[in-house]
Write a structure and sequence with these properties.
alpha/beta; 241 residues; six-stranded mixed sheet; Rossmann fold; four-stranded antiparallel sheet
């Protein structure tokens, strides 16, 4: 029997109250992500892609529909169980890095393990290993975020996402604050992590040039998926027939 997808949603819907009216942010979305896939989500502002990503990251709950992660119906578990899933199964990478300014690269990378109760000696070893995997050499490990370039800060953030050995990395506009060359370097790193470690990655981006580093591009509009195609069939928001 084939293994189930790592992520599966069925008729996933999120409705927000907007005064006396309602706003449908995610509208009956069916989506799957297999283990080892690298998928980009694209769409204009207000398309629902960020709300969808928040639900997948257990930062929000759907109004209706189902969301299964690694065989667990996330829509039915409580807040503590969702927090445990975020801590042990998911890694997050953000546009703004979200590093602690007064701690060095190793200490920033260690943070998720502190919440997971990992002993200090193991924390440091795993943090250093993750920083090296993220392409930040030892010369920079004792530097604070203010002493690092934007690309180096994002590598620290990627290492922080890796240290608890997650099943899935969720990357929200990970190159949005970077120049073109550094963006390419970071995306090449994601490709390498996906190819060599089998890491599953789900990424939100506005840029088609960034999305093309993934293997599959899913486009949202008005809360719905309007296109879901391999990268080689994606041209300007639509599938090539």
């Amino acid at each position: 029997m084939d293994a189930p997808p790592l992520v599966r949603t069925r008729a996933l819907t999120k409705i927000f109250a907007a005064g006396e009216q309602s706003l449908v942010a995610v509208d009956h979305v069916d989506f799957t992500l297999a283990r080892g896939e690298f998928v980009s989500i694209m769409g204009p502002s207000g398309s629902g892609k960020s709300t969808f990503m928040n639900i997948i990251g257990c930062l929000d709950r759907p109004s209706s529909g189902t969301y299964d992660f690694d065989g667990v119906d996330v829509s039915r578990i409580d807040a503590d169980e969702r927090a445990a899933l975020r801590r042990t199964k998911l890694g997050f990478v953000f546009q703004s890095y979200n590093l602690l300014p007064r701690t060095n690269a190793v200490e920033n990378a260690e943070m998720p393990m502190i919440y997971a109760g990992v002993p200090s000696r193991e924390r440091r070893a795993r943090a250093i290993s993750a920083l090296l995997d993220a392409g930040l050499d030892e010369r920079h490990h004792d530097r604070s975020p203010s002493e690092l370039s934007g690309g180096q800060q994002q590598r620290v953030a990627i290492a922080r996402a890796l240290v608890n050995q997650p099943e899935l990395i969720l990357a929200d506009e990970p190159t949005g604050a970077l120049d073109t060359k550094t963006s390419g370097d970071i995306m090449t790193l994601f490709q390498s992590l996906n190819a060599t470690k089998g890491l599953s990655i789900l990424m939100v981006t506005h840029e088609a040039s960034v999305a093309r580093y993934s293997k599959r591009i899913v486009s949202f509009r008005d809360g719905r998926i309007v296109s879901d195609v391999p990268v080689e069939r994606y041209v300007d928001g639509s599938a090539v027939e």
